[in-house]
Amino acid sequence: MIYRKLGNTGIDVSVMALGCWPFAGGKVWGEQSDDDSIATVHVALDAGINFFDTAEGYEAGHSERVLGRGLLGRRHEAVIATKVSPSHLAAGDVIAACERSLRNLQTDYIDLYQIHWPNWAVPLEETVGALESLQRQGKVRAIGVSNFAVQDLSAILELIPVVTDQMPFSLLWRVIEKGVQPLCVEKGVGIICYSPLAQGLLTGRYASADDAPEGLARTRLYAGSRPQSQHGEAGCEAEVFAALAEVRRIAGGLGQPMAAVALAWVRQQPGVTSLLVGARKPEEVAWNLPALELDLSADVVAELNRVTEPVKRALGGNPDMWMSPSRMR
Fold first, then answer.
1. Given 3, 58, 206, 222, which residue is catalytic?
2. Domain ranges of the chain
3. Half-sphere exposure of 79 (CA within 13 A, CB side)
4. Residue 218 to residues 116, 206, 235, 280, 298: CA-CA distances in angstroms?
């Protein structure tokens, strides 16, 4: 396993982290066995994955509760990241949300506490004050953000040195290259990448957009007419599947699975601290590990950039995967 520092802290995190949203099940992920989720946590720890990301908003804390059960007796091996919801960013609500998450996770401290989404109706100074109070009390070790684009990230950095920004980043979602990534590199803010496999697209699992489950086919990569979609845009399905065919060709030339190539590409991008991979069963943890041993040449990286450029161009400057207008600024 490869480990990197969490921003400017002394906390070492595995470059491959386990994203625990699927543990929540629900309408996005469908039926999920808690026993499978807990076993998956154990297998991840055994593989050297020490970084686990969840949120209070994942099915009303169910993901947090399952992760907490999975880490019983092994809390000292783990670095836990969770998130406070945008509706809970008033000072008192931040404190209450943190206390709930601590109970859900069955721990007395959170390693990385992140603002899940901006809430422009609450003064950022108020939220930051509450987060700093939690940090002084030892309930939070480090503070980060999620889904903060250039304007909001710049604003919070004037108040507090957040250590990470969690953003969608993959070969099919390169929007952050247009501003967020350069700012993170400049300011020393580590990027935590979510959906590095574009919710399964970069595994080659889906032959067409119609094959993707409804809960996953609601991003701006897909047509706005798809069930559960809320963005109202035309999407870029043709560009996506043309790019996937090219990524598959490049991976085949390297003798590597497409997913391993896609994850290696993300891992090698400037500013990236860790990338979140999903696993719903213990055996799925091993599927992504080969990407840690794969180093792509500069020529291969350039070719991957070239074949996915049409998707990047079609998405424009909106870094929000799901909504238009963007909830990020």
1. 58
2. 3-203+266-295
3. 22
4. 19, 15, 10, 20, 33
- Distance between CA atoms of residues 312 and 291, nearest Å: 23
Q: What DSSP line would sit under 76-108, residue for residue?
A: GG-EEEEEE-GGG-SHHHHHHHHHHHHHHHT-S
Amino acid at the residue 249: R
- 58 classed as catalytic: yes
pLDDT band at 29 (very low <50, low <70, confident <90, very high): confident
Cα distance between residue 76 and residue 67, in whole Å: 14
- Give the tens place of pLDDT for each residue, 89-102: 999 999 999 999 99
pLDDT in tens, 100-116: 999 999 999 999 999 99
Measured in degrees and rounded to the nearest 5, phi and psi for residue 46 equal -65, -30
What is the model's pLDDT at position 297?
98
Please give the CATH topology (third level) of the domain spanning 3-203+266-295: TIM Barrel (3.20.20)
Taking residue 116's Cβ as centre, other Cβ atoms within 10 Å add up to 22
Q: What residue ranges in 75-228 does DSSP mark as E strands?
A: 79-84, 110-115, 140-146, 164-168, 190-194
Q: What is the chain's mean pLDDT, rounded? A: 96
